[in-house]
Design brief:
With 170 residues, the chain is mostly helical. It is 62% helix and 7% strand. The strands form two sheets. Strands 1-2 form a two-stranded antiparallel ribbon. A two-stranded antiparallel ribbon has the order 3-4. Strand 3 and strand 4 form a beta hairpin. The longest helix is centred in the middle third of the chain and has 23 residues, at 80-102. The N and C termini lie far apart (35 Å).
Amino acid sequence: GVSTNCGQASSETGPFYCPADQLVYIDLEFMQQLEQMLIGQPTDLAEQYILAHEYGHHVQNLLGTNAQVQQASQNDPGRANQYSVALELQADCFAGAWVGARDVLDNPAELDEAIKAAEGVGDDRIQQRSQGRIDPESWTHGSAEQRKSWFLTGFNSQDPTQCDTFTEVL
């Protein structure tokens, strides 16, 4: 576990960005377990996707998007989950834009690995594994299909300005 300006986090928390101290936190053992569960093996591009997603949150923080989402969620608490989903999908899109622009694919199969990682952390997949049921009203990160779609939007466009998830989700 680790103490951050966002509070205490256990090793089960997984990779996350803390806007209060502007740091990305990663438990490497958890990351390997996540890759094993989602893909069946550790993979370079899946790891890069996860890191790029978390750094996407840093970009959102620098742009003021995090603060806007927090304010909107306070003003309209009934849509707080929708705002959270839009924020997470935008980070996926930013990750895809980074991967696409960086030309980091060693082979075409790696793109599938990143897509599997994005899909594997969709709220529907996580809920199905952990609860045996899916409750879209409680989602905070988006479905497997949404996460894949927005990652590919970024990847194919290589343009973060194409990552307007708020218009679609809200």
